[in-house]
Amino acid sequence: MGCSILFLPTYSPDLNPIEHYWFKIKNEIRKVTAQFKDISIAVEHVMKFI
């Protein structure tokens, strides 16, 4: 068929520093979402602290 398999390296989020920041951002958004009616306002609120 002309297809080949491409094996990707194992994904390790612990070794990728940006993953730690995304984890913190997502947690903060979850916390403040209950305080705001609109998710975009919650995200805007969290982004002010980055």
From TrEMBL:
<keyword id="KW-0255">Endonuclease</keyword>
<keyword id="KW-0540">Nuclease</keyword>
<dbReference type="Pfam" id="PF13358">
    <property type="entry name" value="DDE_3"/>
</dbReference>
<dbReference type="InterPro" id="IPR038717">
    <property type="entry name" value="Tc1-like_DDE_dom"/>
</dbReference>
<dbReference type="GO" id="GO:0003676">
    <property type="term" value="F:nucleic acid binding"/>
</dbReference>
<dbReference type="GO" id="GO:0004519">
    <property type="term" value="F:endonuclease activity"/>
</dbReference>
<feature type="domain" description="Tc1-like transposase DDE">
    <location>
        <begin position="2"/>
        <end position="39"/>
    </location>
</feature>
<protein>
    <submittedName>
        <fullName>DDE superendonuclease family protein</fullName>
    </submittedName>
</protein>
<keyword id="KW-0378">Hydrolase</keyword>
<dbReference type="InterPro" id="IPR036397">
    <property type="entry name" value="RNaseH_sf"/>
</dbReference>
